[in-house]
């Protein structure tokens, strides 16, 4: 690549070897005589004198020619000329120093590289627009560049000496709290305004130059008149005689005898030997004499450090810092390309080598897993950078061939990532404007496309087209007026040039021009592309207008864009937008961003007229907005694969974020309105038209931006667009559609959802009258991002609801669109919550219209989730009651009366009715007595209905709600009695029975408890059963009611309970007090204790003894020695029960004897039994 602004010859082929300091052999003597000082072009006075012709010529030669070529070209070079060439050979632009000492350098007002331009070095101005203060915007005090400026300004640079093409000096690092003052020796070699090698005593190893190298370099740029300048040392030595040379060598050895003496003696021995190699070569090397003709002329770049840093960042995986650093390195590559520095391609090659050596690639391939999202983004940027590299408009063919060979080598590796993740690609070739008709017929035969495929395809592109050359080289390139009649492929009807190329490919050319430091040319080509898109848009609109009626009647379309511009690997829309807005960006004067600024400041734009525009009414900023709207509104098919779909969403959000940074003035609003209308009328070519493909990417994110931007200026158009974008998403994975058909959804003026229609048209019908890519894929992709798309649809609806607050008609329209097009209950619930929050501000009265919308949405959620499982269902029900309470009495009455369409019986009684009848609700609504009675009546009716439908779960709640109304309470009680024998469990009946006792109905509680006992079965070993407490309570209740009730329940207990310990507990409690203590009116309490020998306790005693006998035999069947002690205690409790009978001691003795006889084999156990019981 050539340096500078003009059209200069390309650079020599790229070599990836590290450039060494020049040590070419010097023979020719230099002329003697005094040399000039700094020269007339750099006086120390406050007035700047014109540069001399000598300085002008020396500057040009110093920048372009190696000094060896100058020596070969001219037989004698005067010493003043040599001095000026040496003087001007040092870099003159601080931006280049900054580029190699910080991550990202961006200078205010920059339009491209300005190497060799700027103020004279001795004039006091800072070349390149870099300020000399550390307080500029974007200051990063920790970066080497800023630290170097600080060292320079604090006077830490001393002993600066330039000998030929070698600069040396000392830089003193001031003392700090933890470190003493340290002085470092710094040496810099340079050639043709580039630093070719650096050496610093600090020993710092990094990609960037250290602060000491920066300080010395800036000292030479800012204070050249204070630098001692000498010719190359070989010229000085030639002027000495033998005695002087001997004295020089001896003094040099004496000053550094410990370091150079062995080397000096070795060289002396070789020189004195006539057959030594050193005597076979004429002349001697001179490190200060500049580079030779064959040396690479490029800036010093530590390749090993680049490799190590990239390897380190990749090894850190998905950490945020490592991804940020790698992105900064990519930005550094782009910065080098913009400065036309050959190290850009060199550094990208080093980065790519480390990316390909990442061990995770083979691991991911073996495991069949995809790489992380952040890694995919890094690989995408890598591929895009290679496209920029190979599209360099001034690279040599051998360079491009070398890159193509390397890219093919990387692409052929099995571990090379694919362009679209784990899926094959059906995207058109980068060099084709239209795909082939049989493109999608055989998906299995598709070529393998890697991240480098597009760069390899770009190698086939060239810049020799005469029309293209005229576009990028002239602002006023137009067709003659007499040629503007009829169709033309080169110019539009206004005579402005067009560039008919595959849009992503054309935009890749724009990105390449911009990236390589040709912003003006990039703008010209970008404008031609936009003119082409405009013409295509108008022609598509004309086609649709002529066929609109037929198309809508058939309900079919075969026109769609398989390869969308948003989310495309080459990012064509983002590229055009950035190119156009960069020239409109207002920067802080003399401000440099070194990539370490603390916070992002939104850009400020101003209108810049389009160069060469005939009427002067065009603005680059308006064009940027227009092309962004065109790209975002393009109807395009959802791509395959999770990553590709996620990339579409992410790219769309990035473009919208950039659009939101633009402040809309009258011109931009006019552009916005015009494009919005065209998108609405665009038919099958627009994502907001009347005809959409079923797999078309939804426009929700884009429509949300359009709505917010248009609302203050044209509310009707804003709502029309947003409502159009709200149309329903129909993923094909949910539908049964033949694979060779294509379907569309039509949305009429009233935004009603019409049936999805199918088309049997051939998928590859290129003869269709519509223009554009007309491919139907042979597969219907799974919508991995459906959840994200639905959330964006919800955000669009929420935005419209917020804006429509207070407007009943618009709220109703938005509500209808939500109800028809959003099918996720969770999202509708979120919308309802949002509407409720907006409608009930803390400091203002509620908006009743918006509250009603929130309520209607909540009712829809209730209906949608009534028969499905939803973990947030209880939250939804409680929220709906709260919302209805805010709306008022009529809303509460309505949901109570129509409960069966909204709630389950359990929800209706336990949550809805209970909350409605609470004291807080009554106070919140400030109801009078008739209103409270109306509400209570509705709640009781609901409770009885629910109790009839689901008595198991609603009976208790119904009884509670009906307490204050005798008839309703009796009805609820009768429902419980009727359901007790069939559908209710003992636990439910016991719960209701306890409630009845608590409310003062002991006889009803007894009846319910008796019914519960008939459902219970307690086995002999269930001595911890949860129903035991209920059984004890039921027996206690019966005992307290009287002998008759106890006699009635004991048979039920004997039948249901077989656990001996429970039965003995019941028996003991019944014998402790007299029955009839409840004091039932009309009954007389005898006050006598009941005997176990008489009914009803006799039956209970016999059952208890029998239970002990059976339980004993059961336990002895599988007893282990560690349970012997527990078993003896069990027999002790059994004896207590036996003794309650008159002949209990005899029965127990017989029982023990039987055990001894039956289980005499368990000798140890029986011994314990004899010891305790005889």
From TrEMBL:
Keywords: Metal-binding, Zinc, Zinc-finger. This is ZSWIM4-8 C-terminal domain-containing protein. GO terms for cellular component: Cul2-RING ubiquitin ligase complex. Residues 988-1165 form the ZSWIM4-8 C-terminal domain. InterPro entries: ZSWIM4-8_C. Pfam families: ZSWIM4-8_C (PF21055). One of its GO terms (molecular function) is zinc ion binding.
């Amino acid at each position: 690549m050539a340096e500078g602004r003009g059209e200069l010859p390309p650079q020599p082929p790229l070599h990836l070897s590290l450039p060494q300091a020049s040590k070419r052999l010097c023979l020719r003597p230099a002329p003697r005589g005094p040399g000039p000082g700094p020269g007339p072009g750099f006086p120390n006075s406050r007035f700047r004198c014109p540069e001399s012709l000598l300085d002008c010529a020396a500057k040009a030669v110093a920048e372009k020619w190696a000094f060896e070529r100058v020596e070969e070209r001219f037989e004698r070079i005067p010493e003043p000329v040599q001095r000026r060439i040496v003087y001007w050979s040092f870099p003159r632009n601080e931006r280049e120093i900054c580029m190699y000492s910080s991550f990202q350098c961006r200078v205010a007002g920059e339009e491209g590289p300005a190497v060799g331009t700027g103020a004279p070095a001795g004039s006091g101005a800072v070349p390149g627009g870099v300020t000399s203060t550390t307080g500029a915007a974007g200051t990063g005090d920790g970066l080497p560049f800023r630290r170097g400026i600080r060292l320079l300004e604090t006077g830490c640079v001393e002993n600066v000496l330039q000998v030929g093409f070698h600069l040396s000096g000392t830089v003193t690092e001031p003392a700090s709290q933890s470190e003493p003052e340290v002085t470092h020796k710094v040496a810099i070699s340079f050639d043709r305004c580039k630093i070719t090698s650096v050496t610093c005593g600090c020993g710092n190893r990094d990609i960037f130059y250290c602060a000491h190298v920066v300080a010395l370099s800036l000292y030479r740029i800012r204070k050249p008149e204070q630098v001692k300048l000498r010719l190359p040392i070989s010229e000085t030595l030639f002027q000495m005689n033998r005695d002087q040379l001997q004295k020089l060598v001896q003094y040099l050895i004496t000053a550094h005898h410990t370091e150079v003496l062995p080397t000096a003696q070795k060289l002396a021995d070789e020189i004195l030997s006539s057959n030594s190699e050193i005597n076979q070569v004429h002349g001697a090397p001179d490190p200060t004499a500049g580079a030779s003709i064959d040396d690479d002329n490029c800036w010093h770049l530590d390749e090993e450090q680049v490799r190590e840093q990239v390897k380190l960042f990749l090894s850190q995986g998905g950490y945020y810092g490592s991804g940020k650093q790698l992105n900064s390195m990519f930005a550094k590559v782009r910065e080098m390309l913009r400065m036309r520095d050959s190290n850009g391609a060199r550094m990208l090659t080093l980065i790519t080598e480390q990316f390909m050596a990442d061990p995770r690639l083979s691991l991911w391939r073996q495991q069949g897993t995809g790489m992380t999202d952040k890694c995919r983004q890094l690989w995408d940027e890598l591929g895009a950078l290679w496209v920029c590299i190979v599209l360099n408009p001034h690279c040599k063919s051998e360079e491009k061939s070398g890159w193509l060979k390397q890219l093919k080598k990387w692409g052929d590796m099995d571990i090379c990532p694919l362009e679209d993740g784990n899926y094959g690609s059906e995207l058109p070739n980068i060099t084709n404007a239209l795909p082939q008709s049989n493109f999608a017929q055989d998906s299995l035969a598709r070529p393998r496309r890697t991240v480098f495929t597009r760069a390899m395809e770009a190698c086939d592109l060239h810049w020799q087209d005469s029309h293209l050359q005229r576009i990028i080289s002239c602002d006023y390139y137009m067709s003659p007026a007499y040629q503007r009649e009829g169709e033309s492929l080169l110019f539009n009807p206004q005579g402005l040039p067009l560039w008919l190329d595959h849009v992503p490919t054309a935009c890749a050319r724009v990105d390449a021009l911009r990236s390589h430091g040709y912003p003006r040319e990039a703008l010209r080509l970008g404008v031609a592309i936009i003119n082409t898109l405009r013409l295509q848009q108008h022609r598509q609109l004309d086609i649709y207008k002529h066929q609109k009626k037929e198309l809508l009647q058939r309900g079919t379309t075969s026109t769609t864009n398989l390869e969308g511009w948003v989310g495309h690997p080459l990012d064509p829309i983002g590229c055009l937008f950035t190119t156009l807005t960069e020239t409109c960006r207002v920067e802080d004067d003399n401000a440099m961003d070194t990539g370490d600024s603390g916070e992002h400041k939104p850009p400020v734009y101003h209108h810049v007229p389009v160069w060469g525009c005939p009427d002067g009414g065009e603005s680059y900023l308006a064009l940027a907005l227009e092309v962004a709207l065109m790209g975002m509104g393009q109807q395009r098919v959802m791509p395959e694969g999770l990553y590709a779909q996620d990339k579409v969403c992410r790219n769309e959000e990035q473009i919208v974020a950039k659009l939101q940074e633009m402040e809309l003035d009258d011109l931009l609003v006019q552009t916005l309105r015009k494009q919005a209308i065209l998108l609405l009328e665009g038919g099958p070519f627009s994502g907001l038209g009347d005809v959409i493909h079923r797999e078309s990417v939804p426009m929700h994110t884009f429509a949300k931006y359009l709505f917010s931007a248009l609302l203050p200026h044209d509310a009707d158009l804003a709502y029309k667009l947003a409502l159009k974008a709200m149309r329903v998403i129909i993923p094909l994975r949910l539908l049964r559609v033949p694979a060779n058909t294509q379907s569309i959804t039509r949305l009429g003026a009233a935004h009603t959802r019409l049936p999805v229609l199918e088309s049997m048209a051939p998928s590859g019908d290129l003869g269709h009258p519509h223009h554009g890519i007309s491919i139907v894929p042979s597969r219907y992709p799974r919508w991995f991002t459906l959840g994200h798309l639905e959330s964006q649809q919800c955000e669009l609806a929420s935005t419209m609801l917020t804006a429509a607050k207070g407007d009943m008609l618009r709220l109703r329209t938005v509500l209808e669109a939500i109800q028809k097009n959003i099918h996720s209950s969770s999202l509708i619930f979120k919308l309802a919550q949002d509407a409720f929050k907006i409608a009930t501000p803390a400091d203002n009265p509620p908006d009743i219209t918006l509250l009603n919308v929130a309520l209607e949405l909540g009712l829809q959620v209730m209906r949608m989730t009534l028969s499905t499982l939803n973990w947030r269902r209880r939250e939804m029900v409680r929220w709906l009651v709260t919302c209805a309470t805010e709306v008022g009495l009529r809303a509460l009455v309505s949901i109570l009366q129509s409960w069966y369409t909204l709630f389950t019986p359990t929800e209706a009684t336990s949550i809805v009715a209970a909350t409605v009848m609470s004291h807080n609700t009554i106070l919140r609504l400030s109801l009078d007595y008739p209103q409270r009675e109306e509400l209570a009546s509705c709640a009781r009716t609901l409770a009885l209905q629910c109790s009839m439908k689901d008595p198991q779960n609603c009976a208790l709640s119904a009884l509670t709600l009906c307490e204050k109304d005798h008839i309703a309470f009796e009805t609820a009680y009768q429902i419980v009695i009727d359901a007790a024998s069939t559908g209710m469990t003992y636990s439910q009946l016991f719960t209701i029975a306890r409630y009845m006792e608590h409310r003062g109905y002991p006889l009803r509680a007894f009846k319910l408890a008796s019914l519960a006992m008939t459902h219970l079965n307690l086995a002999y070993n269930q001595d911890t059963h949860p129903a035991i407490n209920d059984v004890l309570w039921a027996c206690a209740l019966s005992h307290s009611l009287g002998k008759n009730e106890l006699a009635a329940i004991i048979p039920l207990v004997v039948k249901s309970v077989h656990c001996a310990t429970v039965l003995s507990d019941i028996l003991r409690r019944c014998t402790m007090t007299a029955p009839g203590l409840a004091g039932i009116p009309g009954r007389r309490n005898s006050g006598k204790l009941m005997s176990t020998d008489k009914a009803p306790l006799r039956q209970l005693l016999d059952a208890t003894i029998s239970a002990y006998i059976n339980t004993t035999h059961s336990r002895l069947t599988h007893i282990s020695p560690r349970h012997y002690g527990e078993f003896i205690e069990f027999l002790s409790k059994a004896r207590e029960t036996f003794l309650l009978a008159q002949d209990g001691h005899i029965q127990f003795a017989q029982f023990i004897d039987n055990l001894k006889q039956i289980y005499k084999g368990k000798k140890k156990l029986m011994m314990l039994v004899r010891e305790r019981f005889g």
